[in-house]
Amino acid sequence: MDFRHAPVMPEEALQFLAPRSGGVYVDGTLGGGGHSRLILEASAPDGVLYAFDRDRAALAAARERLAGFGDRFRPIHGNFADMAGLLGARGLTGIDGFLLDLGVSSHQLDTADRGFSFQSDAPLDMRMDNGAGLTAADLVNSLPEGELTRILREYGEERWAQRIARFIVRARTETPVTTTLRLVDLVKGAIPRGAWEERLHPATRTFQALRIAVNDELGSLDRGLAAGIRLLKPGGRGVVISFHSLEDRIVKQCFRDRARGCICPKELPLCACGHLPEVSILTTRPVRPEETETAENPRARSARLRAVEKR
Ligand SMILES: C[S@@+](CC[C@H](N)C(=O)[O-])C[C@H]1O[C@@H](n2cnc3c(N)ncnc32)[C@H](O)[C@@H]1O
C-alpha cells in the first residue's frame, strides 16, 4: 500500500521550525512521514523527533519508511492534543519545536473503506483512529435533527444544512444511512440543482463537517496548540499548516492571545495584571504556498502556515 504524501510547504515549514542537531521536535501529524523525514534530516546527526498519529496504519507504514533514522525517530500512537501527557510519560517536559499539518492524509482519502471520500462507496466511518470512538454513521443515525444541522452549518459552512439534516433524518427512519454514497445521494437531493457550486462537489461541505465532528478536529487543535506552546522551551518554535478557515481562525486567535502582554480591561489607566506574552508571532500574515507548488500538488492550494516562537 502506498502511503506517500507530498509534504505541503516543505521549505517554509523547515524555515520556520528551524530544526538543528541536538534538538527535540514533535511532528503532531506524522501521516506519510514527509515532514518527519525533513525534520530528521535537518536535525542530523542527533536531533530527536517524536511523531504522533491517531491512525495506526499510518504509524506502521512510517515506522518502516523512517526506520533508517533509528532511535532518533520515535512514533507514538495518539492524539496530538494529548502530547503533554504522552511525552511526560516518556520523561519529556520540554521541546524545541512542534509542527502540525492538519487534516487527513492523501492516503486516508484514497483508501475507500475509511469512508472519508464521497467519490467511492464505502462504510460511512471517517475515524482517523479507526479503533476508537463513534463513526460518521453513528452520528448521522443518532443525532437529533437540530444537532446535525448545527454540525453541518458550523463545521461545513453549509448553507443548506437544515434541509440536508431533514433529508437525513427522514431517510434514516426507513433504513439507517450506513454508506458514503447513500449520504451523497441524500445531500444531492437536499440541495436544489441550481444551487450546486460549479467547482465544488455538492457533498464536500457535508463530508468535511462530519469528519471534523467525528474526530473532534477543532477541539483537538485547541488542546494541541495549548499543549505544544506550553512544552516549547524558550526560543522553541511552533508551526501550524491549516487547510480551511475554521482551523486557521483557531490558530490565529490562539497565537494572538498568547502573544498578548497586558490583559487588563481597557478602562484601567495602568497595567495591574502583569501578564507577559508567552510567544512572538513570526508570521504577521499567514504564509501561502508558491504557485509552483500548488500547480504540482492541488492539496496545497488552500494551505496557510502560521508560526510562533516561545519567549
Ligand atoms: C495531512 S496528514 C500529515 C501529512 C504529513 N505531514 C506528511 O508530510 O506526510 C495528517 C495526518 O495527521 C493525522 N492527524 C490528524 N489530526 C490528528 C490529531 N489530532 N492527532 C494525531 N494525529 C492526527 C491524520 O491521521 C493524518 O495521518
| Strand percent estimate | 5-15%
Q: For the largest beta sheet, what order do the strands appear in spatially?
A: 3-2-1-4-5-7-6
Structural class: alpha/beta
Report the sheet with the most strands, covering strand number, pairing sense and barrel closure.
Answer: 7 strands, mixed
Low-pLDDT parts are none
Distance between the termini: 43 Å
Percent helix, as a range, is: 40-55%
Query: How many separate helices?
Result: 13
- Overall mean pLDDT: 95
Ligands in the model, by name, code or SMILES, are: S-adenosylmethionine
Q: Would you give an account of this structure?
A:
The structure is a single chain. The chain has 311 residues and is of the alpha/beta class. The chain is built from 13 helices and 7 strands. Strands 3-2-1-4-5-7-6 form a 7-stranded mixed sheet, with helices on both faces. Bound molecules: S-adenosylmethionine.
Task: Give a summary of the structure in a few sentences.
This protein is α/β, with parallel strands linked by helices and about 300 residues long. It has helices at about 10-15, 35-40, 55-65, 85-90, 105-110, 135-140, 145-155, 160-175, 180-190, 205-215, 215-230, 245-260, 290-295; strands at about 25, 50-55, 75, 95-100, 230-240, 280, 305-310. Helix 11 runs parallel beside helix 12.
Features:
alpha/beta; single chain; 311 residues; binds S-adenosylmethionine; seven-stranded mixed sheet
Could you give the topology of this structure?
Layout: H1 10-17, E1 24-27, H2 34-42, E2 48-53, H3 56-65, E3 73-77, H4 83-88, E4 95-101, H5 106-110, H6 136-142, H7 145-156, H8 161-174, H9 180-190, H10 204-214, H11 217-231, E5 232-242, H12 245-259, E6 279-281, H13 291-296, E7 304-310
Helix pairs in contact: 7-8, 7-10, 8-9, 11-12
The structure holds S-adenosylmethionine (SAM).
